[in-house]
Amino acid sequence: MKKKWIFVLTVLLLVVPVLAACAAPAPQEPAEEPMEEPAEEPMEEPAEEPAEEPMEEPTEEPMAEPTVVKVGVVTDLSGPLALYGVSIQRSFLIGLEYMAGAPGTADNVFTLADPNVEIHVIFKDDQSDPELTATVGRELIEVEQVDILVGTVSSGATATLQGLAAENQIPLIVAPAASNDITGKDFNPYTFRTSRNNYQDAINLCQYLPTVYDTFVQIAPDYSFGYGGAQAFRDACTVNGGEFVADDIFAPADTTEFTPYMEQVLASGAESWIVTWAGAGFISMMQAAADVGVTEEMALGASYIDNALMPVFFSNNVGNTSGILYHYTLPDNPINDLLIEKVRAVAGTPPDLFDGDGMNAAILLVEALKATGGDTSADAMIAAMEGITFEGPKGTVYIRPEDHVAIQDMYIVTLLNVDDPDFAYYELVTTTRPEPPCLLEGDYLERCGDLPVGSLSGE
User: Fold this and answer.
1) The model scores a pTM over 0.85
2) What Rg, from alpha-carbon coordinates, does the chain have?
3) pLDDT, tens digit, for every residue of 42-74?
4) Are 110 and 160 within 8 A, CB to CB?
């Protein structure tokens, strides 16, 4: 506020000197005229200090309205892979709570201070069905008008979501689907991932398997996830000295009768059979493997899986060493500690196989929004996420700018038991950080730059 100043006009008083001039009648020395006293300059009256008006209390600028960012999360909440989808749902919300520093509202709204953003999360259940993925994905884009997509569990359904994201120029963060194709032949610039890919699984496990077994055969589901897994294991285990003695075996993803496939596995004569699989079919597979004699004659070469199904599939593997992408007992950092605490509070159990992926997806999203100042345009978000490094429950995650693969820690562990009530099954052998080849094709191939292309062997 401007201060009003009061000026006092000073009046100058002029003092006129009076001269005394008396002359004597007799001549005498002329009298000396008295020295005129110098006229005193009138004293200026001191100017009054300007009256100070009382200081006004500073008024706080009203906070700007936050930018609303809508995030659509597509996951399997009631289908064949719902066990994994539920993990993604809870851990994504835990990740946003961690980044916001406070819980969200009942309808999943999280407020960030920097940038000034409100994140509104909308979940949709796709039941791992690509057609339903397309339906709920379009609803999120066209009706809810989301700015970001996250999901989904099935690799086949994720391919559908990728197409929608590219068509509508909306960034997509993939968690937990693992198919190589997501950041390989199906790549588009809008697709990022916090999940590992098949190659990372294979590199992790094949650092160990060929040190104890020489010959291999493998079975995988007859769709993109299975093809990618088979390609990756064949490449990674061969590079590390293993030999595949039979063609790869592919069974439909909905197979319930595995006896013919297990007979092929047994007939190969391999020392170890490698399995790439997801979902309930694994139960029937393992039963058939036991019935045919595979489990007695051959060692199972497969990465360890979720907590609940470990006793079903790996009860005969106690004492064996294998790979795993995440288990809550393995990383040692404060973010993982927080994830453990929050999942226990929400679900009454410790985190499972994919909780790390869901929390990492939320952290990546918020770190990108910080970098853009809340700008959710595709150009801004892509520039922010390419090459970004952030800390999550699995430690440091790096999004490779060439193909948007998430470089992350994975683990080699020895199985100690399958009956611990808190799922404390493993002893850590070593932590790895697999660097898969660049699998981009066609117009995107040149993005690979100096990365190994196509396979670890370069062939």
Assistant:
1) no
2) 38
3) 445 545 555 555 556 655 666 689 999 999 999
4) no
